[in-house]
Amino acid sequence: MRADKATGYEPLNTPKPVAENVWLIDGPAIRFYGMPYTTRATIVRLADGGLWVHSPTQLDEGLAAAVAALGPVRHLVAPNWIHYAHVGAWQVAFPGALAWAAPGVAKRAQSRGMDLRFDRDLGQAAPADWAGEIDQLIVRGSKIHREAVFFHRASRTLILTDLIENFEVPKIGFWFRIAARLAGVLDPDGKAPIDLRQTYRDRKALREDVERMIGWGPERVIVSHGRWYQRDAVAELKRAFRWVL
Hints:
Helix content: 10-25%
Order of helices and strands: EEEEEHEHEHEEEEHHHEH
Shape: globular
Number of strands: 12
Distance between the termini: 34 Å
Structural class: alpha/beta
Number of domains: 1
Largest sheet: 8 strands, mixed
CATH topology: Metallo-beta-lactamase, Chain A
Radius of gyration: 17 Å
């Protein structure tokens, strides 16, 4: 995957405040199936002052310094089988951090010849490391895409990865617009891409998990690709998952 420079979400590689103790990082775009996918990490500062980093993006010296200024990095989270590429660089920069892997991540990395160390597996319940602060579940229904989703209670922030993609037309090129429209991932009607939706054979299990996310009552939804939702989170979830609800 080749990194591209401009994404429309500049400044890149800079922690941006979202809510108290929550930041996001817009990283450079990467080429995925030939298309420039924007990237985004989310940082939560836990009650003990340690940082929890979701879907780490490309790291450089400036970003490492800016993150370190927020607190000690304690957790690096690879939330699904295609969001792990930069975990190794963050491990080098922050050797005290634990790396957490969603189902399928370690196997995928190994199949790509990447020598990554994962310390813990993500499960259906939050581990003691962040229980009571961040709720989590592994969304069921697909044997291929098993994404871990998270809800930061204090800020009422839901953190997704690929279950919603929401590319803004002005920020992408002509061919990507066509592909994104066919996949169903164009703003303002972003959702899971059609190929991912087709892997969900157990719609009942998926529906139950989506309803659980809605039941958390989030105020905002951060997604990894495209425009994220700063408000009206429950309405956006009902819209984006109407294909299963």
